[in-house]
# Entry
Amino acid sequence: MFEEWWGQFALDVAVIVLAATLDRVLPEPPPAIHPVVWIGRATDLLARRKPGAPLAAFSYGAAVVVLMVGVSGFLAWLVMEALMTLGPVPYVLGGAVLFRTTFTVRGLAAAADKTRRALEEDRLDDARESLKALVSRDAATLTPPLVAAAAVESVAENTTDSYISPWLAFAILGVPGAVAYRAVNTLDSMLGFRGPNEYLGKAAARLDDLVNLIPARLSALLLLTSGAAMRLPVARAWRGMLRDQRITESPNAGWTMGAAAWLLGIELEKPGHYRLGQGLRDPQARDIAAVTRLSGYTAAFGALLAIGVLAARHAIVG
# Structure
């Protein structure tokens, strides 16, 4: 029994380590073979058929969520089962390639670094343009501090979406769980916003809030742990995070963004919406580099956490 438990655990650890290595050294797979792109295209096709009445749109949106998440997770399960029958090496290699498409650490850092360089070189228009890879807000009129704030906010918030949540989903439910999580997150990013699709995307938005409820708070704790490793003011950040996490409309985003604001000693403002770390100094380009470093530490601690959860799962399930 122990040998069987240890063998499967070792294979899954190999999958997460290899996937993280692939994320670090290789670019994203081309769209033609990227599962998340397929999920997005299928969602777009289904969304075009939405009914007009609010209740009908909500019901249709909920059905789209069940269909897309269920099919995505099931297909990933079929792939992993097929790989397992081929042996340990195909399981690890194929599983790592598929799992790698559900998260990114390097991509988040690279997008933020592009904004940082543009700000440092006083290319404000380029910095605003680069924000499109990080946030959905209109950046056309943002000042340099607000551009820096948006980049810092995005890196902090996306410690949850970009890697902590999919890693924990993998630790609990394997590659199919990570793929299903990415389907939920993709549906939310495409449909879960106010406007023409508000009722269509309401189920996706609420499900995304739910599945990120615990990971977001763990991400905030990991950010604080990373802050301790970087000798930042963790006690102040803890108090500020607890105060500011209520300010954002999202029940999850305020935790990680509040932690980052108080760790770095900067005010993070989204005009007309919230102001985290009120009274602290305005953010600068160097703060984007600092939060990217924080994100890197958080990824390292997050990987250890995921492996710990994975070990617990295998020990319990066998």
